[in-house]
Amino acid sequence: MMARAYKLQHPGSCSGMFWRQDPRPNAVKGKQVGGAEWPRNGSILIGEEHDVGGVKYLEVASWKQAGGSSFIEGCQGLWMLFDQGGLLLHPTTI
Predict the structure, then answer these.
(1) How many alpha carbons lie under 13 Å from residue 60 in its C-beta half-sphere?
(2) pTM for this structure?
């Protein structure tokens, strides 16, 4: 599967979203790398889409904080829902 870029924008009043652990049933819940901060609205997330039990997630490989100048590369264990009370991740170009 090919990595794609998405812009995070919460549909409600939240200013961003917390990272999720690997949602796959048999996944080893390891340490999250590259996610010391949680992404705010306007952040760019790059990764691969996964369907886990009918729920879409993005496995994040790199990301840039909203207003940031550079991407955090080599991320591990960082996952984001595509939808939570509305669409969170919107396709974008970088």
Answers:
(1) 31
(2) 0.93
> What does the alpha-carbon distance between residue 4 and residue 8 come to, in Å, rounded to a whole number?
13
Distance of CA 15 to the CA centre of its chain: 14
Per residue in 43-55, pLDDT tens? 999 999 999 999 9
DSSP secondary structure letter of residue 23: -
- The Cα-based distances of 55 to 50, 69, 75, 83, 90 in angstroms read 8, 31, 21, 8, 16
Residue carrying structure tokens 């991740």: 89
Give dist(CA 82, CA 94) in Å, integer.
19
Contact (Cβ atoms closer than 8 angstroms) between residue 1 and residue 88: no
The type of residue at 44 is I
Q: Provide the residue type at 22 as one letter.
A: D
Structure tokens at 9: 């924008």
